[in-house]
Amino acid sequence: MATVERGCPVIWDRRLARRLAPEERPRTLVYPAIVRNTGLIAERPDPAVSSKQLTFGHINIRSLTPKLDDVRLIIRQNKLDALCISETWLTNEVSSDILLFAGYQVFREDRKKAKPGQRRIRGGGVAIVLRDDITASKLKMSPPKDSRLESLWLMVAAPGGQSAVLGATYRPPGEPVTPDIDALRNQLLEVSRHGKPVYLLGDINLDLIRPEKPQVAQYITMLQELNFIQLIQDPTHPGEPSLIDHVVTNMTSITHRAAAVVQTHVSDHDLIIVNAPLPRPKRKPRELMTRSTRDVNYDHLCLDLLQSNWSRLYDSDATSIDDLFTTFLEIWNAAVDQHCPLKSVKLRHPDRPWLTINDDLRKLQAQRDAARRRRDAVRTIESENEYSSLKKEFRRRIAAARVEYFSAPSTATEMWKELRKHALGPSQSTGPGDVPDAAAANRFNSYFAGVGPRITVPPATLPELSDALKRMSGSRATGDDGVSLHLIRRCFPVVGPHVLRVINASIITGRVPAAWKHARVMPIFNETFGSAASSTISAARRRAALSKLAAEQGQRAAAAKAELTRQEAETQAERARQEAETQAERARQEAETQAERARQEAETQAERARQEAELARQRAALEAQQLADEAERRQLELELLEEEEHGHQSSAVDRQALARPAAAAPSEPAAQPREPLRPGDRSSRTRDWVEQSSQYGQLCLHYDADISAATNVTAVISKLPAALALKWGEHAVHSDLVRPTLADLDSWLRRYVAAGRSLTTAAAEQLLIGGRDR
């Protein structure tokens, strides 16, 4: 054994240990420096210890924290796989990190905190120190009411062995005892439903050396009713000897020699240990008595039955119904045993079809086994990872193949046939003489025996018996004699009258043959019967498993139907949603189209209204301009008339030039001969001038107002606008007027103004015509 300097922390890694060669693996583990005042080096349990038998121990430690080294020594010296500890005195303030045990894991259940208004009592608490390569899961138990019982339950399973239920318990001393026993009873009932071996170790504080005490007698009766036994026989508490530390189990096949008491000096309680055999159960071949009807010649069988001597059934001496039925069975069995005798058949473990019919699984299994051999030969990270991945993949593929096999479509008959073959164990029914409670059966028989005389039944007829036989189930189930209903139907034409003889005799006498009262009994566990055997629990569990499977099958069918309904509903909802979206999209497009059409119509109407308004405005402007021109013309006329009345001299006007139509555009007026102005024409000339030049009335006004007062052409031109003066200058140059006179200017100006008015009037009329067309 390798030695390591005291206090040096060494981390044990199981993965690292598997990668190392056997000679390189450390055999010791030193606790971290938190372990004080000790030089103890605890050895890791030898992995070669058989997992088919585990060693459990228990000790009342009375405060675990200061005695950690003592507990480690107890585990090492006794090679315990699990140590149950009571009275740990641990609280929430104590961390599990300081509870270090080399190669072991710790489960703890501390004493609960006191309720409000109550004082917490010191002490209590239970724990289980379990080997770390043993898988364990904590079982949830309903908290006991009005009980001081403290307990901790684990489901444990060693590699390659059978799983079991391990419990640690502590009952404080004192009264009352009944609530604690009731709480323990409920917990034992609850863990028994798992169908596993149960081992409960703890300090019960009930001295079994004194069984005459009422509390002890009540405790022993409770164990007997539940079919549990207590294995410790020697005192466990030194000083005044008392047996208060117990090992309770439902494995009645274990003897008291499997348990022992080991003296210790850790506390005032000794250590108790038990060797628990937990081998993996092997399926034993089941023997079945059956009649093979595969090669039966029913014609020969009916012939033998027909040639048999049935006269004894009709003798007047045969008055007892039991004698009649016994005679019938003797004749019947003699012929049936000759053609299809009873045989003992052993039903061995059936093959798993999902394993044998799948070639891929067999190939994957071969790859996994090869990877295991490579891993064992050369321990490397690659070989370890390869084997681990193949092992996980093989397990996953097996589970998938099993689910696929049982999920395949089949009838209810085929489904239950496969379940009985591969998933359900055989029901252990009892024979006619194995009824566990004869008193209960006699009570049933006594009741039904007294009912007969009160019922009047007419004798049966052969057609009624034939119809009843046809209505019965067509299964190949057999009775105690191995005769199936199918065999009776084939032979009914021959044996029907003889069967009718026995039935009518039973009806007439009001008695039933004793053999007809025999039945195959499947016991159901009932905690009120203290003599129930352990097989009773198994039978009830199988019945419960069958009911559970049926319920699960019904639930799966209902779930599948609900899923199908849900999918159909989702499909319909999706279809309705799509239709609604399509209709909404169509309505939206129609609304957009109508809105666009309405918008276009509104824009068209608005444009038409705008154009009409513009045309009206133009008309109004033109009318207003005309009115303004008319008003201005009249004003000018009045002013001119006033000037004429005052004797102003008017300029010479060429009436012929004014009377001629205007040119197409303002251009250089041609030189025209002037007529001398006549005084009498002054008023008419002014009037014509104003009428022809209303648009340029202001211009002409300036001209007419100044022409009589001007002394020369230059003075008149200075009064004209610059553009008009420029035009006059161009006209004078083109006409070679060296010394133009006022008559020349008057004649040119009137022609120019008349030409411009004609153009303006034509443009206005064209504008009005275009507006009406639009």
From TrEMBL:
Molecular functions (GO terms): catalytic activity
Low complexity: compositionally biased ranges: 656-674
SUPFAM superfamilies to which the protein is assigned, alphabetical: DNase I-like
Sequence segments annotated as region (Disordered): 563-617, 643-689
Pfam families: Exo_endo_phos
Biased composition, class Basic and acidic residues, residue ranges: 675-689
Matching Gene3D superfamilies: Endonuclease/exonuclease/phosphatase
Annotated InterPro entries: Endo/exonu/phosph_ase_sf, Endo/exonuclease/phosphatase
Domain named Endonuclease/exonuclease/phosphatase: residues: 60-269
PANTHER family membership: ENDO_EXONUCLEASE_PHOSPHATASE DOMAIN-CONTAINING PROTEIN (PTHR47510:SF3), REVERSE TRANSCRIPTASE DOMAIN-CONTAINING PROTEIN (PTHR47510)
Protein name: Endonuclease/exonuclease/phosphatase domain-containing protein
Origin organism lineage: Eukaryota, Metazoa, Ecdysozoa, Arthropoda, Crustacea
